[in-house]
Write a structure and sequence with these properties.
By secondary structure, the protein is of the alpha/beta class. The protein is about 35% helix and about 15% strand. It has ten helices and 13 strands. Helix 3 links the parallel strand 1 and strand 2 (about 85-90). Helix 2 (about 45-55) packs across helix 3 (about 70-80), helix 4 (about 115-125) crosses helix 5 and helix 4 packs antiparallel against helix 9. The radius of gyration is 20 Å and the shape is globular. The model has no long low-confidence stretch (mean pLDDT about 95).
């Protein structure tokens, strides 16, 4: 397994690392891993070169865990047709995708975190007293646009469900430039969080790989400011600052990794694009649901009840990716009553009307 950040980052990479441990426990497999696989921590090396090191140590299947590794995973898969490859979050073998390429040994796995982000947005809207929500974004691409937009759709829905004036909701995205802080390269996510909190954005949703927004909220909370935050990626991320955490939408990669690796072992492997939904019977079941939402200690009881109602609506088929929806520049994206296709969600070209922030890198 190649991890873009530290294996213990309390976020994206730790969720994958613990999924690897889950595979070890359930299949008797052995995980070899390299973390901090990014240009800042490992200058002069590429993920496909590092994957070669793992194969030299005996790896029969390699998981590339970041969107940044998509091209490298393709290069590696083509060079090693006898090694199984899982590319998390990619779309190379999606037959209906924009860049389909048949690679029999590669599978794409992603959870439909759009649902988790809708829950995050809902919780944020319910908790906010100023009706100003900040979104701490990483870099700008299809994935990050659609996830930020999903958080906005959830916030808008629950803000209005709670009786809020639609015009009073403000939702601003600030992108730092990468999945986590690289001093001298990205914006400092701690400073971005602070800028939100000190300009009346009383809830900040993390879209980056670790929950640094919670630490900043905790400092301000200790000074008497009523602020809170939403973490991301990892089920236990609220532990960074439970007193200000209203929840965390998280990935649970273990069950899907077990299925994929079992298929490689028993000969039933097939290259596929898997964009898996939560297990709506129990989104927090660690053995069945790829996406969940853990409520945080700072979420008020009344707000938690409304959030539960919203989750029940989603489980029952509520689809917030339904028109009318316009793009940020006012262009109609979904007509009234039109339901977005998977392609329209996955390849969202801009943020949505009503969101503030860049839709593309300048």
């Amino acid at each position: 397994m190649l991890l873009v950040g530290p294996y213990n980052d309390n976020g994206w990479s730790q969720a994958h690392y613990e999924a690897g441990k889950y595979v070890e426990e359930n299949l008797g497999a052995t995980m070899l891993y390299l973390d901090k696989v990014n240009p800042a921590d490992r200058p002069g090396t590429t993920p496909d070169q590092l994957a070669e090191e793992l194969v030299a140590q005996g790896a029969k299947l390699v998981i590339f865990n970041s969107d940044d590794m998509k091209d490298a995973s393709t290069t590696f898969a083509k060079a090693h047709p006898d090694v199984y490859v899982i590319m998390a979050s990619g779309d190379q073998v999606w037959s209906d995708g924009k860049a389909f390429e048949a690679m029999p040994n590669l599978t794409n796995i992603m959870g439909r975190m759009e649902y988790g982000k809708m829950m995050a947005g809902c919780a944020a809207a319910l908790a906010s007293e100023t009706h100003k929500i900040g979104y701490l974004g990483p870099l700008i691409n299809d994935e990050t646009r659609r996830l930020a937009a999903s958080a906005y759709l959830g916030a808008k829905y629950c803000h209005e469900k709670a009786g809020g004036d639609p015009a009073s909701l403000e939702f601003k995205v600030t992108w730092i430039g990468f999945w986590f802080n690289i001093p001298g390269v990205t914006l400092d996510p701690v400073q971005v969080s602070n800028d939100f909190y000190t300009t009346d954005y009383d809830v900040v949703i993390s879209g980056i790989d670790n929950p640094v927004n919670l630490g900043e909220a905790a400092k301000l909370k200790a000074e008497g400011k009523n602020v809170s935050g939403v973490a991301y990626d990892y089920v236990a991320a609220c532990e960074a600052a439970p007193e200000v955490c209203i929840g965390v939408p998280y990935f649970n990669w273990g069950p899907e990794y077990v299925k994929a690796i079992t298929s490689a072992q028993d000969g039933s492997w097939s290259s596929q694009f898997l964009w898996a939904s939560p297990d709506w019977a129990d989104i927090n079941n660690p053995d069945t649901s790829i996406v969940g939402f853990e409520k945080g200690p700072a979420l008020a009881e009344d707000d938690a009840a409304v959030l539960d109602e919203f989750i029940t609506e989603l489980a029952g088929g509520l689809n917030l990716w339904s028109g009318p929806i316009n793009l940020q520049d006012g262009t109609a994206y979904l007509a009234d009553g039109e339901v977005a296709s998977d392609q329209q969600v996955w390849y969202l070209p801009q943020l949505l009307e009503g969101m503030e922030g860049l839709s593309a890198s300048e």
